[in-house]
Amino acid sequence: MNDITEKRREKRINISCELRFRSLDSDEFYEVDCIDLSSSGVSFYSEYLLQIGEEVEVQVIHPPIWFSTTFMIKIVRIDPQENGAFKVGAIIEYEEAK
Asked: What mean pLDDT comes out for the span 40-45?
């Protein structure tokens, strides 16, 4: 049973995939394992410390999926794990139509 309190507007998809991300002020990418994904948010495990409110570019790198695989996220939750990694929660930020 999934013991996560649902806070997203959209249903989560538990997906085994690899992501890579970079801070907007850096050209360096880091690869991480995705926990789940929805049309409004994403969560993943990271060995790299991010900051609440930080905006990050994310790409799904494996497996390839049918929708756009590059998107912007804003970090909203960081939970330190016993192994030294961080469980990160973020909302997907969409560009407003012009």
From this structure: 90
Q: Looking at the domain assignment, is residue 78 inside a domain?
A: yes
Closest CA to 55 of 92, 23, 96: 23
């012009």: which residue's tokens? 98
Sign (positive or negative) of CA dihedral 8, 9, 14, 19: negative
What pTM value is reported for the model? 0.77
Query: Does residue 6 form part of some domain?
Result: no
Residue with tokens 């690869």: 31
Range of the domain at 85: 13-93
Do the beta carbons of residue 56 and residue 50 sit within 8 Å? Answer: yes
CATH number at residue 20: 2.40.10.220
